[in-house]
Amino acid sequence: MTNFTRREEGELVYYAADGLESTGLVRHGFSTRHGGVSRDALASLNLGFKNDEVSSVLENRRRFLTALGLDPARLVTGQQVHGTVVAEVTARDVGRGALRWEDGFPATDALVTSLSGVPIAVATADCVPILYLDPVKKAIGAAHAGWRGSVRGIAQAVVTKLRECYGSNPEDILAAIGPSIGPCCYEVDERVMIPLQDNFPFWRRVVEPRGDGHWFLNLWELNRQVLVAAGVLERNIAVGELCTSCQVLDFFSYRAEKGFTGSLAAVIALKEDNKKQL
Ligand SMILES: [Zn+2]
User: Fold this and answer.
1) CATH no. for residue 73?
2) pLDDT (tens digit, 9 = 90+) per residue, 225-253?
3) Is this structure's pTM higher than 0.85?
4) Smaller CB count within 10 Å for the chain: N or C?
5) 180: CA distance to ligand 1 center in Å?
6) Which residues span the domain enclosing 155?
């Protein structure tokens, strides 16, 4: 399971993971910077409230979620802090963070839910977005994994939460690793290497030394390995291999744009149960 498909709806462009799509159980997408109303460094589909006019962000979110067939008023987000807290989204949380960042789950970098028709999202601009689906228990997850979250194992924390909340078997879980800074561009130093080496015996497989106390870190492979260690099957993990920094014309990249940029979003929702609508 490796394929991502680029989709266009007028000016709006996003990516979808074929493996998630083919289940027919979810609506989901990984945004690009195309198709919104924001300007300059935030042009144009900025989905985060930082740095931008609220009205522009809400219009951008409306466009993206509507294109996915989702209700932007029901969107749920977390206030991301590069931690490993995973929150369960229940009926009383619907719409948390849809209109204001402050309403999102405090200090939360990942969400899970079994509610249908409730989009959960993470925001990124180089960090790794990971979407999850357990097609057996009908539960989903979304994680924001920068280097801190990645070395702290947030990819695994979501698998654990899906087990706790919904009885998920890791072997059933599908995961998609979306657009983020690639091993081609992500240079790190010992600040990252020390916790990486402390936490993962396989650390050599996810870095390439470039001398001078610097390494290139492969966050895609790191998160893939963390998922495999958590019991997710290799064939159920898709890696988009889309580098936000190389493709800064298509994506927001914190590094490539020297810290002033917009936010991409990865969104997923379980489809409404058809039987209930009859
Ligand atoms: Zn790159």
Assistant:
1) 3.60.140.10
2) 999 999 999 999 999 999 999 999 999 99
3) yes
4) C
5) 9
6) 11-271
